[in-house]
């Protein structure tokens, strides 16, 4: 009898717990707690801004071997402009100076003057050469030398089989790193062209065509 009473005595407590759980569930349901939506996900979209980098400036055109024609109008191959200080006046005079000068040890197809204002390139097999000034471009002695629509002063002289011609150039044969041809020195013998550097300018000749030129700041001579 005592055991049966103990079991009956525990029954009300269990009923109370069950009833309490049901009450709580009902209360949550009535308050909408079961309907709480899940948290929203945030999606971040990154849009790349358009590039604002400045456009690259094109580099000056470099001409390894000058081939440009100065103008369609024939130009005399014997011209002079400027003060002509120290310039040879003929092929024979220029050749005499060059033959008397010692060759530089390491200068062949390209060089610069010690001042750096004049750079030159010459062919060792085609009888061509060219020199140009960085400063001291020359006003043309004839109006027909510089074509319309381009530079109106002479910055380069080009020597070819037909003679030496002034060029109103907008390009350059200067590439940097040209070896120095010291004053009083000539290029190494190679081919039919040769050049001589002097303190007052540079002289180049072609022994095959017997033409040549002298170029310096503000002056040139072709012969």
Structure, briefly:
It contains two helices and eleven strands.
Question: What would your notes on this structure say?
Answer:
There is one protein chain. By secondary structure, the chain is of the alpha+beta class. Helix content is 17%, strand content 22%. It is built from two helices and eleven strands, in the order H-E-H-E-E-E-E-E-E-E-E-E-E. The protein has a six-stranded antiparallel beta sheet, covered by helices on one side. Strand 3 (118-122) and strand 4 (129-133) form a beta hairpin. The radius of gyration is 45 Å and the shape is globular.
What is the overall shape?
globular
Q: Report, as a whole number of angstroms, the end-to-end distance.
A: 147 Å
Residue share in helices? Answer: 10-25%
Whole-number average pLDDT? 78
Instruction: Tell me the fraction of residues in β-strands, as a range.
Output: 15-25%
**Domain unit count:** 2
Radius of gyration: 45 Å
């Amino acid at each position: 009898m005592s055991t049966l009473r103990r079991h009956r005595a525990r029954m009300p407590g269990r009923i109370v717990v069950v009833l309490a759980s049901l009450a709580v569930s009902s209360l949550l349901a009535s308050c909408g707690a079961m309907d709480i939506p899940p948290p929203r996900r945030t999606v971040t979209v990154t849009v790349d801004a358009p590039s604002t980098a400045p456009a690259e400036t094109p580099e000056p055109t470099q001409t390894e071997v000058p081939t440009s024609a100065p103008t369609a109008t024939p130009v005399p191959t014997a011209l002079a402009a400027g003060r002509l200080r120290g310039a040879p006046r003929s092929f024979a005079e220029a050749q005499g100076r060059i033959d008397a000068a010692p060759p530089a040890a390491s200068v062949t197809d390209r060089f610069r003057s010690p001042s750096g204002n004049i750079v030159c390139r010459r062919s060792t097999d085609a009888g061509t050469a060219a020199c140009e000034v960085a400063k001291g471009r020359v006003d043309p002695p004839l109006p027909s030398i510089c074509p319309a629509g381009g530079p109106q002063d002479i910055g380069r002289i080009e020597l070819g089989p037909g003679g030496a011609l002034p060029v109103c150039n907008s390009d350059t044969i200067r590439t940097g790193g040209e070896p120095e041809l010291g004053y009083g020195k000539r290029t190494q013998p190679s081919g039919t062209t040769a050049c001589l550097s002097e303190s007052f300018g540079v002289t180049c000749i072609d022994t095959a065509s017997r033409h040549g030129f002298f170029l310096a700041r503000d002056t040139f001579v072709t012969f």
